[in-house]
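in:
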């Protein structure tokens, strides 16, 4: 007997991140769980991004971003950046500039400062493939896992039998 694959997607383990983008003085950030390393040499990260969102437009224009690793005590941060259409979303938390000038979330466990290589189509999202230019650990702790966020992202509507 085969179960609905959407139900089983919650069993795939992955972390929770804040992707921050900037294009000049314009900045935005969003919560992402679909992030992975794809190469050691050069170091490359890929993540999924909704092309309908403002962050996609900024990333496309500037070609730079940071991938900020959230800790298990960062559920409120994940929820904040998971909201769409919030004005002044960036002012709630402290940021520092990365090597690429993309914002780095000071509260994150670690960050990867990236330069966009290319996008690839993936259903209703795009996959951003990015070379890591700089990275550092900022704070200690255990990473927040997607399965620990419950229905924060409203995905339960996709996980029905």
């Amino acid at each position: 007997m085969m179960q609905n694959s959407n139900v089983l997607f919650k069993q795939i383990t992955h972390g929770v991140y804040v992707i921050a983008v900037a294009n000049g003085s314009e900045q935005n950030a969003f919560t992402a769980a679909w992030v992975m390393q794809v190469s050691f040499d050069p170091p490359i990260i890929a993540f999924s991004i909704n092309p309908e969102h403002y962050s996609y437009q900024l990333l496309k224009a500037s070609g730079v971003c940071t991938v900020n690793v959230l800790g298990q005590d960062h559920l409120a941060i994940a929820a904040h950046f998971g909201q769409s259409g919030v004005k002044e979303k960036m002012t709630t938390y402290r940021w520092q500039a990365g090597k690429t000038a993309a914002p780095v979330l000071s509260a994150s466990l670690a960050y990867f400062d990236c330069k966009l290589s290319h996008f690839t189509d993936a259903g209703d999202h795009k996959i951003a493939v990015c070379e890591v230019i700089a990275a550092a650990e900022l704070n200690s702790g255990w990473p927040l896992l997607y399965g620990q966020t419950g229905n924060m992202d409203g995905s339960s509507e996709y996980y029905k039998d």
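note: Strands lie at 17-23, 26-32, 35-39, 44-49, 64-69, 95-97, 103-105, 110-122, 125-137.
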